[in-house]
Amino acid sequence: MASAEPDTIPILLVTANVGSVFEDPSKLLHLWLREFLDHVAQRRPAFIALHLQEVGGKTYEKSMEYVQEFIKKLCESDELRDYNRIRVYLDEDYNSAEHFTALGNLYFVQNTVDDVLMWNFLTHEWDPVEGKSIHTGSIETVASKEKAKFPQQFFPECKWSRKGFLRTRWFLNGTVFDLVNIHLFHDASNLAACEEYPSVYCKSRRRALVHTLERFHKDTANRPVPYFVFGDFNFRCDTEGVIKKLTEDLTVHRVQNAKHDSTKVQYRDADGANVLTVGKKEFFHNDQSTFKESWLRQFDRELDSLRSILYEYPITFPPSYPYEEDPLQPCSYMATRCPAWCDRILVSPAARKLISEGSTGDSYGIIGADVCMGDHKPVYLSTRIKTSQAVTGVDPGPRGSASEITVQELQDRLQEYTDLNMRIYDQQQSEAASLKVQSRYVTVTPVVAPDGTSASEERTEPPVENENDTSHYGDASGSRCALIFRETTV
């Protein structure tokens, strides 16, 4: 006789970087709230987890009243009136550079959920969840959460950072899991990001993320349980690869601004029109719609090295960042960064087993596709989780189908990917060494023919030996300006 299918609970997980919303709250706050609450009303989940980053924006001390208004309107909204258990954690202690992360975790539990407990990270026991509790200001001593700011050496390029994570643990109708809000470091310079892949920023993010996951798996005091980690990972596309794809038939020109000591690289078409400009904080393309086409997904590679330990639902939505902060341009990207899927919802191997397979309501996407939500579009996962998955009612680390992989298995899976990539790299280097490469410079100079029309004369320069430069930058001007091209044969 087949065993009965377990009951399930519909849940809604949302991550949103709201920094720009609090930079211009008079225009954006009500739009953001309305769109989020409409989404909740449409899906009616029994449990909502809302993870926020950059709460309060860049100047928290000036935005505190708006943060309080934001929380009040959410908790008192008609859409959430059936959610009789609320937990809010806002890290607002902006005067503490050692601890401040600007993270916010908000949880809403509907009255249809019978058994709700939260883990106490100090006593290592379960606490009942009743009514509404809002923790703001300094939350260092709040025992129902674990919070940490990343060590500065993870992001050496940044003088000061608010990046870190904020974790809570839940028991819902017999099923145990962690919910982790995370914020990783951004790309400080487009020019540095496109020098190689993985970029220096990509490596720093991976280091911090792996450090965090290992911390959970090594946690003997609280014991590892299935977890969902969602936040602003700041994952970026392979900028070097994107630029190569966008500029296949274009010429490159380096523009130096001596006054501001800055450099830009422009890519122009055959008519001299500028198609793409890349600067430290500029990424302008003359056709923004191209970033919403499917070709860009092949360059979303930052999660590849972690897919054996973190699962993600297939992405079918456009990049979540960086959108214009103008309510009149809700679908347009800013010309500052290459659009990317920075905001993600990732699932551990054991947490994936908690998800009810084949649920017709599963959906992974963005909120406010046609509404200005700030520079980040919130990303959501709507699914159902199985209940009664813990072997013992309050055991934080039940053995069985819901148990998390060991730290050794986690490290082994990561090492397998590293070993594979090293073999591929070694093979590519070996193949490249066996090729004979010859280069020469070709100078093309305009000349005037007897009939007055323009012509060109080609002059071959001596072969180049031990030459590392692969392109020539500069602007051509004048009636007899010579253009120098490098011709390489293999």
UniProtKB/TrEMBL annotation:
Signal peptide positions on this chain? none
Recorded GO terms, molecular function?
inositol-polyphosphate 5-phosphatase activity
Keyword Hydrolase carried by entry: yes
For the region Disordered, what residue ranges are annotated?
448-478
**Keyword flag Hydrolase:** yes
Sorted keywords for this record are: Hydrolase
**Residue ranges of the Inositol polyphosphate-related phosphatase domain?**
7-392
Q: Which family does it belong to?
A: Belongs to the inositol 1,4,5-trisphosphate 5-phosphatase type I family.
EC number(s) on file: 3.1.3.56
Q: Name one Pfam family in it.
A: Exo_endo_phos2
Query: Where does the source fall among the domains of life?
Result: Eukaryota
A Gene Ontology biological process annotation? phosphatidylinositol dephosphorylation
Q: Which InterPro entries match?
A: Endo/exonu/phosph_ase_sf, INPP5A, IPPc
The identity of this protein, by name, is inositol-polyphosphate 5-phosphatase
**Listed PANTHER family:** INOSITOL POLYPHOSPHATE-5-PHOSPHATASE A, TYPE I INOSITOL-1,4,5-TRISPHOSPHATE 5-PHOSPHATASE
